[in-house]
């Protein structure tokens, strides 16, 4: 197989994160600590995973950076936008995810990461009341100011490339509106007309990033880039997009465990999932309109793995419920509890219970790193539009629903997709084996 031409990872990579809360401050601190040799980036596929390339006598196991040119952690420069003015050190301390001893060694570097004013609309996150926000008259003004932020950051920090990552709160649910969201011209017209109902602030970030030549990653369940108009923009600008929603705790379990039920041809009667968490994300999701956005992404996982059309005896009319409860004492240490009612031979019922006591930001930080590095790789490889191979990291994988395309939610199928994309970019043959 001929190797695809991949540009080398030369120069600095600017990583601009929307939201400087628990997730992003943990991500940044971990990268900076790893650079100093004071921590290990556990959970990161790009830093740890190995895959087989070649067959027979040519078989070997390599890390990602031995197959394709991945940006070195020392070449990353961080920036952010946030509604609160706290710098990355203050944010990391306030979040109380990491111990002080794991933050102080990189205090000086974190203090230099001061958030730019956010493009913000209080109606999209009513539980947030920060005053570090832009004074924009229209959505189009938001776009122009964000574009300038990206250009200024790139120049000030001598960056060769930029990636923009949304790690901010979940916005209120924006239903897809064909009159606004299907064609790029209609989307731009709505921005200029200041259509605040159909144009979320996150869409302004995505539009600004793509038009400034930066890949965009949606780490929340927002509608943002999951619309045909943004796909058109990604095609036009030749930029990669990925989303939506980091696959951290409960959905990671669901996408890995549901295939066990499916491959053993066991039946499913019901799957009840509930979560308690207390960080800023939990506070925002306590608002019903914001929870609706998250609910849609969480519910979609199971339905594409255990499909009634394929096995009507086993997966017709099962009950699937998802709950998220704001519980401040738990802070960032969320708990996901699943009760699964299955049935087996001759229809006899059985139960499975999973209790995942996880740390949200500790699980999300390596996803941020991998999504940033692999989106940058995709851009250097000339890949653009929806990056399906990044579904492995995301809760509700983007897909072309206008053509009734079914997303792949099975974790093991996603893993094969991820590895084959790396193989392809490295000039190796695709392989369907997990090995």
From TrEMBL:
GO terms for biological process: inositol biosynthetic process; phospholipid biosynthetic process. Residues 249-361 form the Myo-inositol-1-phosphate synthase GAPDH-like domain. Keywords: Membrane, Transmembrane, Transmembrane helix. GO terms for molecular function: inositol-3-phosphate synthase activity. Gene3D superfamilies: Dihydrodipicolinate Reductase, domain 2, NAD(P)-binding Rossmann-like Domain. The keyword Transmembrane applies. The chain crosses the membrane at residues 12-33. Belongs to the myo-inositol 1-phosphate synthase family. This is Inositol-3-phosphate synthase. It comes from Muribaculum gordoncarteri. The lineage of its organism: Bacteria, Pseudomonadati, Bacteroidota, Bacteroidia, Bacteroidales.
């Amino acid at each position: 197989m001929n190797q695809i031409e991949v540009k080398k990872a030369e120069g600095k990579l600017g990583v601009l994160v929307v939201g400087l809360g628990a997730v992003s401050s943990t991500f940044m601190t971990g990268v900076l600590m790893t650079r100093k040799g004071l921590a290990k980036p556990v959970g990161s596929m790009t830093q740890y995973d190995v895959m087989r390339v070649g067959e027979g006598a040519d078989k070997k196991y390599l890390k990602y950076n031995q197959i394709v040119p991945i940006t070195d952690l020392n070449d990353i420069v961080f920036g952010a936008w946030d509604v609160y003015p706290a710098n990355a050190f203050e944010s990391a301390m306030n979040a109380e995810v990491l111990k002080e001893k794991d933050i102080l060694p990189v205090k000086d570097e974190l203090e230099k990461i001061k958030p730019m004013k956010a493009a913000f609309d209080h109606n999209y996150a009513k539980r947030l009341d920060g005053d570090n926000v832009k004074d924009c008259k229209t959505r189009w003004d938001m776009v122009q100011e964000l574009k300038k932020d990206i250009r200024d950051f790139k120049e000030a920090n001598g960056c060769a490339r930029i990636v923009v990552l949304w790690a901010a709160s979940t916005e209120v649910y924006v239903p897809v509106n064909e009159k606004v969201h299907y064609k790029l011209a209609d989307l731009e017209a709505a921005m200029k007309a200041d259509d605040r109902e159909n144009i979320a602030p996150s869409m302004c970030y995505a539009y600004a990033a793509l038009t400034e030549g930066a890949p965009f990653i949606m780490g929340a369940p927002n509608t943002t880039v999951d619309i045909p108009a943004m796909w058109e923009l990604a095609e036009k600008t030749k930029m990669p997009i990925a989303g939506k929603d980091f696959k951290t705790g409960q959905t990671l379990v669901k996408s890995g465990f549901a295939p066990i039920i499916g491959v053993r041809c066991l039946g499913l009667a019901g799957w009840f999932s509930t979560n308690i968490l207390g960080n800023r994300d939990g506070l925002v999701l306590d608002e019903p309109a914001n929870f609706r956005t998250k609910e849609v992404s969480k519910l979609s996982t199971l339905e594409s793995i255990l499909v009634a059309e394929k096995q009507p005896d086993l997966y017709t009319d099962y009950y699937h419920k998802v709950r998220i409860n704001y519980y401040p004492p738990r802070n960032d240490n969320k708990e996901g509890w699943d009760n699964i009612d299955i049935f087996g031979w001759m229809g006899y019922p059985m139960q499975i219970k999973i209790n995942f006591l996880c740390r949200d930001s500790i699980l999300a930080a390596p996803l941020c790193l991998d999504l940033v590095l692999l989106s940058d790789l995709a851009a250097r490889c000339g890949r653009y539009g929806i990056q399906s191979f990044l579904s492995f990291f995301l809760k509700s994988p983007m897909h072309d629903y206008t053509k009734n395309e079914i997303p792949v939610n099975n974790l093991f199928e996603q893993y094969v997709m991820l590895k084959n994309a790396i193989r392809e970019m490295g000039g190796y043959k695709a392989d369907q084996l997990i090995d």
